[in-house]
Amino acid sequence: MKGSEIRSKFLRFFEGKGHTVVDSSPLVPKDDPTLLFTNAGMVQFKMVFMGEDKRPYSKAVTSQRCVRAGGKHNDLENVGYTARHHTFFEMLGNFSFGDYFKEDAIRYAWQFLTRELGLPPEKLWVSVFEDDDEAFDLWEKVEGLPKGRIVRMGEKDNFWAMGDTGPCGPCSEIHIDQGVEAGCGRSDCALGCDCDRFLELWNLVFMQFNRAEDGSMTPLPKPSIDTGMGLERVAAVLQGKLTNYDSDLFAPIIAKLEQLSGKRYKEHNGDDTAMRVIADHARATAFLVADGVLPSNEGRGYVLRRIMRRAVRYGRNLGLTTNFLEQVVETVVVSMGAAYPVLEGATSLLAKVVRNEEERFRETLEHGLQLLEEEIAKLESASARILPGAFVFKLYDTYGFPYDIVRDIANERRLVIDEAGYQAAMTGQRRQSRSSRKDEGLRLREDGIKSLIEAGVATTFVGYDCLEIESEIK
Ligand code: ATP
Ligand code: MG
Ligand code: MG
Ligand code: MG
User: Fold this and answer.
1) pLDDT band at 473 (very low <50, low <70, confident <90, very high)
2) N or C: which terminus of the chain carries fewer CB neighbours within 10 A?
3) How confident is the model at residue 469 (pLDDT cuts 50, 70, 90)?
4) How far, in Å, from the CA of 227 to the mean position of ligand 3?
5) pLDDT by residue (tens digit) across 15-69?
């Protein structure tokens, strides 16, 4: 079953159960400066769950575009290293706003996975929160789930909270056992292991309590449901693949990379990693730019810059030493534009932004890499393994190398970065630039005021009518 079929099957299934199909919201959350990017389906419904916004429906279903890079949920570092994580992915979710609760949520999920998608029940495992007897009992009653497949887990994995206070509750996750060959091979590998064997497919969150400042929890008057399932993971499983990157959702992008580099996927491990990272980052780039994020040195823009530059550096591992990212991003638009028309509207902007950023980075990339090679040679001749933090900072500050890139290279060469030294260099530079900015600011302000007075300008207080708008997230 193709990814696009799974997506529409999911939407139709829940529509058939009375859910309203709601469009994906943009990656930049509206009116929510606390969040870098939309990282789950529930983000656009946050206020509805809190009871502060009303919708004409009490049940919804979405296929939500998500980014987990930078910020609280950060999977940027996992990309290239696990088979299941992306920076950009699609989350399929069904939601109940005070309508149905645990029983239906569990029943629907089981029905969808085993009947609609035909996943084999004997491979499925379920986790519930350790104190959630209600969910445990409901799963026990589910026909077809083999005995001994319900595992109680702790707060870290199976309790969800919107923040320190507010709506929260236990969750229940459905996993599929992909067999020993997909895992870490340790004898104690079991559900909850961080490897890819027991692949987490679907998280069902039971929003049940309201947590107060003092930590006490009171039952919500209208418990709600929020679920999320990664489309790429389900697609890979249904297509008999052990990594998301081998699903049809990535095929056109990987094919483009094969064509551009003249290398074949699945022939050499290092090339595969590079192709996967670039494929993932090209998708994130396309969607972030289409949703209005531009590469910059701060906030959201800097996360995008890190993603793009990391892709360019991995391109070099494939032998791509001239601009290529624009063409990969174009393939993303072609393969995903039908499901996400926002991409098609951004084609020319995307081309320009990607070309500029790649060109700009290429001005310093080679020289920076050469310095890095010299530094590594020095370390190797001294049998040392630690890249000095001040040097890594210089690569960032002078050559525009985001930390992630140096970390990737350090991993490739079995070196470690002196992270504390890097942080110290960064803090030192910030302090210095802050104080010089202050001096410069004062001088400019004094000059400005003097020239205004000389010009006979008077000031008017406008603070009652307008506020200064914060444009960047720090
Ligand atoms: P994992 O433990 O594998 O990191 P998670 O517990 O962080 O996943 P949730 O926050 O529960 O994930 O999100 C709901 C679902 O979204 C997951 O069950 C998974 O199918 C999917 N998902 C989460 N993170 C990613 C990601 N980085 N890339 C692709 N799919 C993801
Ligand atoms: Mg995670
Ligand atoms: Mg998890
Ligand atoms: Mg989870």
Assistant:
1) very low
2) C
3) very low
4) 13
5) 999 999 999 999 999 988 878 999 999 999 999 998 889 999 999 999 999 999 9
The tokens describing 264, both together, are 């074949």
Pocket test for ligand 1, best of 233, 249, 277 (most atoms within 8 A of CB): 233
Summary mean pLDDT of the chain: 92
Q: Which domain holds residue 304?
A: 250-383
27 pocket-lining for ligand 1 (C-beta < 6 Å): no
Spatial separation of the C-alpha atoms in residues 355 and 351, rounded to whole Å:
6
Cα gap 421→390, rounded to integer Å: 6
- The C-alpha angle with vertex 67 and arms to 65 and 72, in degrees rounded to 5, equals 135
Residue 428 within a domain:
no
Cα-based distances in Å from 132 to 153, 159, 174, 202: 10, 10, 15, 18
- Say which ligand is closest to the CA of 84: 1
- How many angstroms separate the alpha carbon of residue 288 from the centre of ligand 1? 19
Q: What gap in Å lies between CA 265 and CA 394, rounded to an integer?
A: 35
Question: Residue 331: which residues within 8 A CB-CB, separation 6 or more?
Answer: 252, 253, 256, 282
Q: Which two tokens stand for residue 122?
A: 């004997």
Q: How many domains does the chain have?
A: 2
Burial code of 371-388, b = ≥16 C-beta within 10 A, e = fewer? bbeebbeebeeeeeeebb
How remote is the CA of residue 157 from the centroid of ligand 3, in Å? Answer: 6
299-321: pLDDT as tens digits: 999 999 999 999 999 999 999 99
Whether the pLDDT of residue 229 is over 50: the answer is: yes
Residue 455 reports pLDDT greater than 60:
no
Report which ligand 1 atom has the smallest distance to the Cα of 194. 2
Q: Is the pLDDT of residue 453 over 70?
A: no
Joined tokens for residue 358: 């790649």
312: amino acid identity, one letter: V
Q: 103 and 190: one domain?
A: yes
> Measured from the CB, is residue 200 less than 6 Å from ligand 1?
yes
Task: Let me know: does 290 contact 346? Beta carbons within 8 Å.
Answer: yes
Residue type for position 355: R
Residue ending a domain, choose from 174, 204, 238: 238
Long-range contacts of 10-17 (CB under 8 A, 24+ apart): 10/61, 10/63, 10/92, 10/112, 10/229, 11/61, 11/62, 11/63, 13/108, 13/112, 13/116, 14/59, 14/61, 14/94, 14/108, 15/61, 17/59, 17/108
Domain boundary among 383, 413, 438: 383
